[in-house]
Structures are given as C-alpha cells and as structure tokens.
Design goal:
about 550 residues, about 0% strand, two-stranded antiparallel ribbon
C-alpha cells in the first residue's frame, strides 16, 4: 500500500498577497480605523451619560493607555509582520489555543460586528443631517430624504448593504484597491473634520445660540434649556463647576473606545512594504496625531456650546419622565439624535459649511469600514493558511491578489449583524469595548512572550532595551495592566447578562473549532508543534 503523503506545514509557500502599503498608507489606515464613531458619536454623550465628567480630560486620560498599547503594537508589528497579525502573534508568543480562540475567532467575530456597526451608523447621521440642511435651505426633498432614512428601517438596511457590498468587493480586489479607497476616505473626512472644528472655534456660545435659533426656529435654544430644567436637569449634577473624577474615570469606557483600532495595522503586517518604518507611522505615530486631533476637536465642541447645553440637549432627547419621553414635549426642535456633526452643522448658518459638514464628517465612520472588513478577512485567511480553518479561505484572486473567499464570508457574516442592528435583535450579545480591551491583554502577553521566550522574533524587530531589559517587555507589562486589565474592568461595569452569555458561547465555538482542526491536522500527520514554532511564509 502506498504511504500517505504528509501535507506541508502551511497551505503553500507564500500567501499570494502583495506588500502594497507604505508609511503614509499605513498612517491613513490606522487614522481612518480609529477616528470614527468614538469621536463623532460619543464625544457629545459624556456630560449626560456620566454627569459631572469632563469630556476633554476623559479623552486625554484614555489617550494614556492607548499610547502605551500603541507602542506595544508598533514593536509587535515590526517583529511579526505577517497577515492575520494578532492571530499569529498570540499563537506563536503565548499559546496556539489562545491564538486561535482570542486572536482568531473572537477577533473575527468582533470585526464583522464592527463592520456592521460602521455601515449602520452613517445612515443615522446622514438622515438627520440631510433633514437639517433641507430645513434651513427650504429644500423639502432633502427633508423628506432625511426623515425617510431615519424612520424607514428598510431604507437604512438597503443603504448599509450597498456600503457593505462595495467594501467587500474592494477587499476582494486586493491591497492596492484597499489602499486607494482608504486614502480617498481619509481626505474626505479631513475636509469635514476641519470644517467642523473651524465652525466650533468661530462660534462661541452667544453666536451658537443665535445659529441654533436660526436653524431650528425662534426660541429653539431656550426650549431645550427650559424643557431640560423643567424635567429635572440641574447644573449641580450635569454641569458642576468642579470636575467629578469618579464620573470622568468611568466615562473612559466611552473615550477609550474612540482610540480602539490603533492595532488594526497588525492584520495587514504581511502587506507592509517596510514593516519597521510603516509600523511606526501606522501605529504609534498615528496615535500621537489622533490624540492631538481629539483634544482639539472635543475642546472646540464644548468651547462653542458649553457642557451645560450639550448635556441638556442629550437629556431632553433621551430621558423619560413617568415612562414618557421628554422629547415629545418639544414644539420647535425636531429632537434629532445628538451627534458631533449635528452640533457642528447647527452652530453655523453658512449653508455651504453645513453641507460640507453634513456630507463629509460622517465619512469619519464610513472610512473605518474597509479597515475592519480587511482585518476580518485577513484573520480568517491566516487561520486557514495554518490549516486551522478550511483551506479554501486562504484562496487569493489571480489578478488582483485579494483574499476573495475570506472577504465574501466575512461580508456575509457582517450582513447578518447589520440586520440585527436594524431589527434590534441580539445587539446586546456583544459589547465592543469589553471585547477590544480583553484582546489588549493578550497583546501585552504577546509582547512579554516575544521579549522573554521568543528571542528569535524579538531580534526581527527594533531590539530596543533599557539597562538590558527589552523595551517590549516593559510596554507589554504596561499594556497588560492599563489598556488590557484596567480598561476591561471599566468596560465590564456595563456588561449585561446577555452579553456574558453571548461572549461565553463565542469563546466555546472558537475553542471547538480549534480542537477540531488541531486533531484533524494531527491525523493528517502534520507536526502542529513545529507549525506553531514557525512564522507563516510571507
């Protein structure tokens, strides 16, 4: 009987993907992934959600663990520049099981969930911004479109699916198409972001009130103030003169989310042209610039409106009295959901500036879609390349060199979560901030593992030390404790029972997949210990 041929360790000798991303593209990749819903949505939610918190201080504090973790991510990417970054790092530096479960399956679920979130939220933004632009310019068609997008779930689902299909196709088209898409989206958002900051800075509270009345109707500003105060809002609770440190620290569950994504360069590590240089500009360099961008943006919002009015507006829109929404008491204001671009567009009466803000600021959320879509597809691709998922998932297009099957599977899964968002089904199963913070613990452990046990990988990176102690070890410990454990516990304060159950099920599915494919590969004669001791081919 002929002896059965033992398969090679990996699916093939090379991934087939292309090293297309340089330093600038690495920077725009991270910037567009990070600067999205966290700043454009949650920045104006803090005074109401965490009464007494200082939004600027909260964003500054959240920037500390983000900076530390970004240093760690930079060193990890430089040392392990491979497709599927976090999966490869965790499985080689900590343990194959944790690599597959946390860096693989959990990370993939998290990212397809993020894809759904990012194709869902822009429709919400554009709905109320189109309505606002239509109202102030007396364009009934825009007002109709805006209300239709806000109220018709089917319309929002259709728009979201269009975005999803477009970015899945771009993912399938390979890294060059992805690079150009992200660079274009980066500049589109930059136009809107600068316009929003300029509007806030040039409109202090007195002129902001005047603009609000001009946009929504005479007395609209005072209606918000009076309605909030009549229903229990007090300055002592929501806008105190002294900072409430407890509320500020708890609000970091919002603001740290705004920094999530600085590690998203890791999954395309195998597509970076100069890994060490690109890792710096695409992780640490990007986070430093993002921290500055956030400080300026958040400060400008509250310079223009003040903490009191922002919290009053959110209070009126979201609070209930005896089960009845307070927003129903409004007769002048339409009660639109509070977002940063809404406040920016409402602070000016310049119609051109309003249109720029309405069109381009929401691009700060759209521009995150390609990154998280690619992170999801590369995670599947990397596990498949290790033979720990069906090998078809590592198939690459012949012409454009994109992960065609992994991209489609990830897109279909994201479409499921998009439907869940629209229908409000299973949404509470996952809590993104908790899941991301938990993964940062394993980034810290990976850095420690490489610095102490996998010196062969450490030698591939920057090889920086202080007094003979690897810098990667120091920042690995800091990342484990601050970006990982501290932020995980902060996020865990908001966990619901459904979230705990859902996350437990996801963990078990990931573990079952790992066990099944590990045993299957052993049966084929593959030396799994040898496989996980080596880096996958480039």
């Amino acid at each position: 009987m002929a002896k059965q041929k033992v398969p090679t360790l990996f699916v093939r000798d090379a991934t087939g993907l292309v090293r297309e991303f340089g330093s600038f593209s690495a920077f725009t990749w991270t910037f567009t992934d990070v600067v999205s819903s966290g700043i454009n949505y949650f920045a104006v939610k803090i005074p109401y959600s965490f009464p007494g918190a200082d939004p600027v201080v909260s964003f500054a504090l959240a920037g500390i663990p983000a900076f530390i973790a970004a240093v760690t991510a930079t060193m990890l990417i430089a040392a392990v520049p491979r497709v599927g970054g976090q999966y490869v790092m965790f499985s080689r530096a900590i343990d194959p099981s944790l690599g597959h479960i946390m860096g693989g399956f959990v990370s993939w679920v998290l990212n397809i969930y993020c894809v759904a979130w990012f194709v869902y939220i822009p429709t919400y933004f554009w709905g109320h911004l189109l309505w606002l632009v239509g109202k102030v310019n007396n364009i009934d068609l825009l007002m109709t479109w805006g209300m239709t997008i806000q109220e018709e779930l089917g319309v929002r689902l259709a728009i979201g699916l269009v975005f999803l299909v477009v970015f899945v196709l771009i993912d399938m088209a390979g890294s060059r198409a992805m690079k150009w898409a992200i660079n274009i989206l980066f500049f589109a958002y930059l136009i809107g972001g600068v316009a929003a900051i300029a509007t806030f800075v040039t409109h202090p509270p007195a002129t902001a009130k005047e603009s609000w009345d001009t946009n929504f109707g005479a007395g609209a500003y005072d209606e918000i103030v009076n309605t909030a105060e009549a229903n229990g809002w007090t300055a002592a609770e929501y806008a105190p003169a002294a900072i409430n440190w407890d509320a500020t620290l708890r609000s970091m569950s919002f603001t740290f989310w705004a920094y999530v994504g600085f590690e998203f360069l890791a999954p395309i590590g195998g597509e970076l042209r100069e890994p060490k240089k690109s890792a710096f500009w695409g992780s640490l360099g990007a986070v430093i610039i993002i921290i500055i961008w956030y400080m300026v943006t958040v400060w400008s919002v509250y310079y223009s409106y003040g903490t009191a009015f922002v919290s009053q507006y959110d209070f009126v829109v979201n609070e209930k009295v005896n089960g009845e929404p307070i927003v129903n008491q409004l007769t002048i204001n339409p009660g639109l959901e509070s977002t940063l671009p809404l406040f920016a567009a409402s602070a000016t009466t310049d119609r051109n500036m309003q249109l720029i803000i309405a069109l381009f600021v929401p691009m700060g959320i759209v521009n995150a879609i390609p990154g998280v879509q690619a992170m999801a597809s590369r995670t599947l691709f990397a596990q498949s390349f290790d033979r720990q998922l069906p090998e078809v998932l590592s198939k690459v297009g012949r012409r454009f060199r994109g992960p065609i099957v992994a991209a489609v599977v990830s897109g279909i899964a994201a479409a499921f979560w998009l439907y869940c968002y629209i229908a409000n089904v299973l949404v509470a199963v996952l809590y993104l901030d908790f899941m991301e913070s938990l993964l940062y613990m394993f980034f810290g452990l990976s850095a420690m593992g490489i610095a102490l046990r996998r010196r062969d990988l450490w030698e591939r990176g920057y090889k920086l030390s202080i007094g003979g102690v690897p810098l990667m070890l120091i920042f690995g410990i800091l990342t484990l404790g601050l970006a990982g454990w501290w932020m995980t516990l902060t996020a865990a304060l908001a966990l619901a029972p459904t979230t705990i159950i859902g996350f437990s099920i996801i963990i078990m599915i990931g573990a079952a997949l790992y066990g099944y494919y590990y045993l299957l590969n052993l049966k084929k004669g593959i030396n799994m210990a040898e496989l996980y001791s080596e880096l996958p081919p480039e």
